[in-house]
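Let us work through a complete example step by step.
Step 1: write down the sequence.
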Amino acid sequence: MNYGKTALNQKMPWGLYTRNGHKVLCADGKIRACEMSPTADTFFSVPARARINGKWVSGYVTGEEQKYIEKVKTEEPFLKVWAFRAHNESNPEGFPQWSELTPEKHNELIENAHAFKWASFERFEIKLPAECVKDCNHSGDCSADVDQWQPKVSCYLSHISDEKLSAELREYGSWNNEELKERETNEKRIIRIAAGNIQEEEGR
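Step 2: predict the structure and record it as tokens.
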């Protein structure tokens, strides 16, 4: 199970976690290997230990997602990672805890643990997660995938004005002025185009 550059390994068919081979994000922004218990102790956490500053630190692995910040226009948490949270009593002195991070720093660490790709247009540039690019441009109908991704990546399109977005899309000649009035629909269109352009560039 991968979230960005973080990953957990499981043995099938029972889904038990392997002891080693996991990559988790720590509150200092580094992705470290950790050892994990084969089973979770709660619905949200798995006992684990990670080597930090030369010593084994006990704690647990859990999923961390971006926090909602009012000034960021997104309808739901987007990026997620597998994170290591140290127990207070074993946390090295001076080492940051997830609970101590500001929402902005929290989101920054999670974003940095993901791979992004850029698409350039005449009037603006946008970045999209690699997972979004893959999901939103493939053979067959991509509409459902684009619909799922649009509210998640809308925050990465917030720097584009409605006027610039509709003007950029108008040049493709596929939509008239009336069809280009709705922001959400236009975002879905530009996401689909951007994913295709990125993959085309990579294929050259």
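Step 3: interpret the result. The CA atoms of residues 122 and 168 lie 7 Å apart.
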